[in-house]
Design a protein that fits this description.
The complex is a heterodimer. Chain A is an alpha/beta fold. Chain A is built from 17 helices and 22 strands. Chain A has helices spanning about 45-50, 75-80, 95-100, 120-130, 145-160, 175-190, 205-210, 235-240, 295-305, 325-330, 340-345, 355-360, 375-385, 405-415, 435-450, 460-465, 490-495; strands at about 5-15, 20-30, 35, 60-65, 65-70, 80-85, 165-170, 195-200, 215-220, 220-225, 260-270, 275-280, 285-290, 310-315, 320, 335-340, 365, 370, 420-425, 450-455, 470-475, 475-485. In chain A, strands 6-7-8-3-9-10 form a six-stranded mixed sheet, with helices on both faces. In chain A, strands 16-19-20-13-21-22 form a six-stranded mixed sheet, sandwiched between helices. In chain A, a hairpin with a 2-residue loop joins strand 9 and strand 10 (about 220-225). The radius of gyration of chain A is 24 Å and the shape is globular. The two termini of chain A are about 45 Å apart. Chain B is mainly alpha-helical. In chain B, helix 12 (about 265-280) packs across helix 13. The chains are: A alpha/beta, B mainly alpha. The interface of A and B includes residues 305, 327, 337, 348 and 363 of A.
Chain lengths: ~500, ~325
């Protein structure tokens, strides 16, 4: 293996009351793919921010090419070839690809007007796009790119800055299987060109596929390393949580009843106006809804919950039609949605936990139109206890919680009412393994209590592990339904990528 | 009262004390009553504006509405000879209707509040000028409406009724905004409309209601302003009043992004603006500097507030 060009040693970072990093060491050598794993709050982000020059460590040494620093600033970090692809992409979607790559350092035509040389810029970007196998051109507007393509664009931007260490922070959390596969190939290309990649992810299978070694953090300390031969999800989980996770998934207590709770009759959404969705959700089951991004899953969820009005068709709960296009009516019928984007649509980040929990049931916490602060507090307290929301108090702002605890607040909002149907759109995206297990346990408990759960997920392991049945969507329609006994990654993928023909051949 | 409100109150007291020392006339009963009257008039408009700003919207047409409804009020009362309670109810219905129209255009037709109400500003001003053919509308010589006058420009124990009306409206709106379910919905919609919708809150209805409330309060203040000035010249009556209202709300801690602010704050904001007007008059500052002084104080106030919260954040 090549000599490491970057050595972090004895890095500590203390915040008031918290030791975020405690004597952590990390080395990076050219052409190396390092998987960095750890639960949320283990210190991964802090460590990466120190590398990016955003945070100063309390103590420790950073050695780059033999030169030792106490801390880096952003400029030094960039000059050393360290580039960061953030989980939330930092792109200007009102500009085109080339403009985004060269933002802040545009090639100029010369002359006093400092006009941008757009031709030259496009020509300079093209080689990077070729190298990454991008399916867009330098003049494509970013608003037209999928999330996966935007990731590629971010990587191109990093390469154009001569990055030799690329940090990818959960790049696959919103990608589909095939897009993820594509990204892993790109990472392979980078490695072949001598770039070191630090890959932060909660999706352990991806690391098994591509990482050269694993560094695991736990509670701010180094929990251990794994060499290439030893990498497996079980080994990583053990390092991350310090114990064996017997099973992430809880089996159902009893077979689900055959009683239909939610039925869609020839439901058509604006995303796929020529297709119809006929789906039955039974009492006490968790129905997984798999499919590629863009297959119409989220649109289906939005139509079921009344956010969008379907073009045609009907939704029924216990045989009664639900008036379309009004979330309040859906809520009244007992259909609740835990949305995909909890920061934008699930929570009011500036409001306390308790206020978020009662937001959908304020009239029930009011007398004669006046809200009763005491009742809000007690509901908040009760749900905080029931769902084990980890916060000092229910007056804590929702925005300060970790992803897992935020998701529990969204769930608490609905569980404080009495759901008949709970739709969860990507319920564990960006959530660490420990909190994931709690969410799965909670979904299973809800199903066992007779609630019908529809779980939309792009995480194949999760779909297969959690669901009683899996419905697979493809281009706007349900392409097939798999029973628990028939579940396999292969079977789900098959249905997700190609249309099932009459004779079953694909 | 929030920390912000207390800071604003302190600022008002300091400015008042300084003016009173420079010119003792400030504390004379007649000056205090006049100032209180103006605080009442502008306070009512500002409270209406604040409700709209809470949703993240803005209502730029209030000055023109005050003019148009004022003209109609005087015309119906003087030239049509309708009894004043009928006229009052008609005018308030009109105000609510204008608010309803604005609200529906913003929610159902997806227009931006700034554009809808900017067009309103131009349209209502034009309508008022056309209706009167640019002639000043006023009362006939010797015409009096004793009950109406007592209820608008009258005084009880030396306190202007308009000021008391503003306090009552403020108290009611405080309960609505800070204690009622509707108030929570207003704040939720202002903070994050999407999340509010995903929680089953009827966001469109909440936004429309905010504009209706603003229209109602504006129409009431239109009647007060008409009774106060007694004559209305349609090209200038109510000019810039929307900006006074917005300034009072901003001084009172309302964020133009929505979701933040308190009724106590906006009332104090209205008080500070009138004290500043009074300061310009009493200290013999050329009245041409009036706007400049007001603008500077608002700028300094908002600057101090943001710097202070930055400082506090850094210390945390």
């Amino acid at each position: 293996m090549a000599e490491p060009f970057l050595i972090l040693s004895d890095i500590c970072k203390a915040y008031p009351g918290v030791q975020a990093l405690d004597h952590v060491a990390l080395q990076a050598a050219p052409a190396e793919i390092i998987g960095l794993v750890g639960e949320n709050g283990a210190g991964k982000s802090t460590l990466m921010k120190i590398l990016g020059g955003v945070i100063r460590p309390s103590s420790g040494r950073i050695t780059i090419d033999g030169q030792s620093h106490d801390a880096l600033n952003v400029g030094q970090s960039m000059a050393a070839g360290i580039a960061f692809v953030h989980q939330e992409l930092n792109l200007f979607d009102n500009l085109d690809v080339a403009a985004n790559v060269f933002i802040g350092r545009e090639p100029l035509m010369g002359g006093p007007l400092r006009l941008v040389d757009r031709k030259k810029m496009a020509a300079m970007v093209q080689p990077f796009l070729d190298m990454l196998g991008a399916e867009f051109t330098p003049t494509t507007p970013v608003s037209a790119l999928s999330i996966a393509a935007r990731q590629i664009l971010e990587i191109a931007k990093a390469l154009s800055q001569n990055a030799r260490l690329l940090i990818l922070d959960e790049p696959t959390s919103s990608l589909t299987m095939s897009e993820t596969q594509r990204l892993l190939e790109v990472i392979g290309t980078l490695k072949a060109r001598g770039v070191c990649v630090i890959f932060v992810t909660h999706r352990l299978n991806e690391l098994t596929a591509c990482a050269d070694r694993i560094v695991a953090l736990r509670d701010g300390r180094l929990a251990g390393h794994l060499a290439k031969a030893d990498i497996s999800p079980a080994a990583m989980i053990q390092l991350m949580i310090g114990r064996d996770l017997k099973s992430l998934y809880t089996p159902p207590r009893a077979a689900a009843s055959a009683l239909p709770v939610l039925e869609t009759m020839a439901l058509t959404t604006a995303a796929w106006p020529v297709e119809q969705v006929n789906l039955t959700l039974r009492q006490g089951e968790i129905l997984g809804l798999a499919g590629l991004i863009g297959s119409g899953r989220t649109e289906l969820a939005r139509a079921l919950f009344g956010i969008d009005r379907p073009l045609q068709g009907q939704v029924r709960v216990n045989g009664q039609p639900v008036p379309p296009g009004d979330p309040a009516k859906a809520i009244a019928a007992g259909i609740f949605l835990v949305p995909e984007d909890r920061k934008q649509t699930g929570l009011l980040l500036d409001l306390p936990i308790a206020e978020n929990v009662v937001l959908a049931s304020l009239p029930a916490h009011a007398r004669a139109g006046m809200v009763q602060a005491g009742r809000i507090q007690s509901t908040g307290q009760r749900m905080k206890g029931e769902l084990d929301i980890r916060a000092a108090d229910v007056a804590v702002r929702a925005g300060t919680l970790s992803g897992g605890n935020q998701q529990k607040v969204v769930l608490a909002k609905w569980l404080s009412l009495s759901p008949r149907v709970l739709i969860c759109d990507e319920p564990t995206r960006g959530i660490d393994v420990g909190a994931k297990q709690e969410i799965y346990l909670m979904l299973r408990r809800l199903a066992d209590s007779g609630i019908a759960v529809l779980m939309i997920s792009s995480d194949m392991e999760e779909v297969i592990g959690v669901s009683d049945r899996v419905a697979v969507m493809h281009e706007g329609r349900i392409n097939g339904i798999l029973q628990r006994t028939e579940l396999s990654e292969h079977a789900v993928m098959q249905l997700a990528v190609s249309r099932e023909t009459e004779d079953g051949a694909t | 009262m929030t920390k912000k409100d207390i800071g604003l109150l302190l600022l008002i007291l300091i400015v008042s004390a300084a003016v009173a020392i420079k010119n003792p006339l400030f504390l004379s009963p007649i000056n205090l009553a006049n100032t209180a009257n103006l605080i009442g008039l502008f306070g009512i408009v500002a409270i209406g504006q604040a409700v709209v700003i809470m949703t993240g919207g803005i209502e730029l047409s209030v000055g023109s509405i005050i003019c148009l409804l004022g003209v109609l009020f005087v015309d119906l009362l003087v030239n049509f000879g309708l009894p004043w309670p009928v006229v009052l109810i008609l005018i308030m219905c009109l105000g609510a209707l204008i608010g309803l129209l604005h609200g529906l255009m913003i929610t159902r037709l997806d227009l931006q509040p700034f554009i809808v109400t900017l067009c309103g500003l131009l349209i209502y001003r034009g309508a008022a000028r056309f209706y009167t053919a640019d002639a000043t509308a006023g009362f006939k010589f010797g015409q009096t409406f004793p009950t109406l006058e007592q209820m608008t420009i009258g005084r009880i124990a030396g306190v202007p009724v308009s000021f008391m009306a503003m306090l009552v409206i403020g108290a009611v709106m405080w309960v609505v905004l800070h204690r009622s379910v509707f108030g929570r919905y207003l704040q939720a919609v202002g903070k994050n409309e999407e999340a509010a919708r995903y929680s089953g809150i009827p966001t469109q209805r909440v936004i429309v209601m905010a504009y209706v409330i603003c229209g109602l309060l504006t129409s009431l203040s239109a009647v007060y302003f008409a009774m106060y000035t007694k004559s209305i010249s349609p090209s200038s009556h109510g000019n810039f009043y929307e900006l006074y209202a917005i300034a009072a709300a901003v001084l009172g801690g309302f964020s133009l992004r929505g979701g933040e602010g308190s009724i106590v704050g906006v009332v104090l904001g209205a008080v500070l603006l009138q004290v500043l007007q009074n300061l310009v008059n009493l200290l013999g500052i050329p009245s041409s500097l009036n706007f400049a002084v007001t603008g500077s104080v608002i700028l300094i106030g908002v600057l101090a507030d943001t710097q202070y919260s930055k400082y506090r954040k850094r210390r945390l």
